[in-house]
Amino acid sequence: MIRKCAAIIINNKKLLVVRKHKTSIYISPGGKIEGNETQIECLNREIQEEIGVTFINPIHFSIDYSKSIFEGELIEINSWFIDIIGDPFPCSEIIDLKWITSKEEEKIQIGSIFKDSIIPKLKNIGLIE
């Protein structure tokens, strides 16, 4: 099983999603835990690499499981609310980012865990439109 951490970044009731080079699927910023990294260390590294910002106030939200679209293996994703410092921009393997509502989520391809689990949870508790 692959262990990953995902950032939930919300601004004005919109969720930040990113898209990697050579794919049409939007996912959350974040990535695989490397070696003995803690989840927060993983998020810190991935957020800086992917969207060029730092963050504060990490709050654990959920643990979800699914088959990875990219690796074809079972993944465990720990999602964390974070507040970012600075304006995000595509870096490293990220080519695009978008702020979406749950309605816009139907117009673009979203990774399965966020589409099937996290976005509905965020909408149900009123954090995104």
Order of helices and strands: EEEEEHEEEEH
What is the alpha-carbon Rg in Å?
A: 13 Å
Level of helix content? 10-25%
| End-to-end distance | 33 Å
- Spans of 5+ residues with little confidence (pLDDT < 50)? none
Mean pLDDT: 92
Strand content bin: 35-45%
Structural class: alpha+beta
Major pleated sheet: 5 strands, mixed
Q: Tell me how many strands there are.
A: 9
Number of helices: 2
Shape: globular
Question: Could you characterize what this model shows?
Answer:
- Strands 2, 3, 4, 8 and 9 form a five-stranded mixed β-sheet that branches.
- 31% of the residues are buried.
- This protein has two helices and nine strands.
- The protein is of the alpha+beta class and 129 residues long.
- The radius of gyration is 13 Å and the shape is globular.
- The N and C termini lie far apart (33 Å).
- Strand 3 and strand 4 form a beta hairpin.
Topology record:
Layout: E1 2-8, E2 10-11, E3 14-20, E4 25-27, E5 30-32, H1 39-51, E6 54-67, E7 74-85, E8 94-100, E9 109-110, H2 112-124
Parallel strand pairs: 1-7, 4-9
Antiparallel strand pairs: 1-5, 2-3, 3-4, 3-8, 6-7
Q: Features of this protein?
A:
129 residues, alpha+beta, five-stranded mixed β-sheet, four-stranded mixed β-sheet, 2 helices, 20% helix, globular
